[in-house]
Amino acid sequence: MPVLDQWAEDQNFHFHISEHLFPDFRHIELRYETENMIFEAVSCGNKDAALEAFGKIADTPPIVRRLSNELRGHKDFCIAFNCILQKAAESAGVHPIYISEFSDENIRQIEQFRNANQCKQFNRTMIAGYCNMVRQYNLKNFSLPIRKAITYINMEPDTDLSLKALAVRLILNPNYLSTLFTKELGISLTEYVNRCRVEHAKHLLLSTDLPIKKIVQQCGFTDIHYFTRIFKRFTSLTPKNYREQGISDKLWDKPYYIRQT
Known about the structure:
Largest sheet: none
Radius of gyration: 24 Å
Order of helices and strands: HHHHHHHHHHHHH
Strand content: under 5%
Helix content: 55-70%
Shape: globular
Number of strands: 0
Structural class: mainly alpha
């Protein structure tokens, strides 16, 4: 007999449900049902549906007050809820590196809260954030090689992102990777890389005071004149004019493009 099974038998191990929970039987079921609804909505990037579902339990008092410190209890609920949301994003095909970065930042913020209302409001903020992430980084419909390629490109725009370099990194034939990429995204790999690098440049132009020459390097371009030509092709503006006008029509840290249907 396995060790754990023997231990359970020796201890007469069984699940015990406290009697005071029976009056809240339906309450418990509702909470689990609602969490499943939120999970499903977030995995689809449906912010409105997720927030509507959350409203059903947002102001519901806990069935059992687990801690004497009320604020600690609210923080722990936020952290647990964050875990549910991050698994929903993962189920949608969002790469773990994006989820981990966002999740860790959420926990840092939660630990700084000073009252329960901040925690309650932040639950809604997390829902919106994860839904936005799913809409922006949903790679579920792409093949595994393309998911990896997209992630490499967006996470490391300043590295060698040539077809040859990516093929070596993914252990794929360059021709196969090129064909697969164009088939799944509707644009060539080179076009995709340039678009992502330009979006990264737009972000740096508006959020930093870095010289344009430095931005060129951080976006993986080696020639400022080529960078300017590519940038102008996508924005109709030079990098300098773009910064001066302060346009922020599509601004995010790690963008990527997918086929528009």
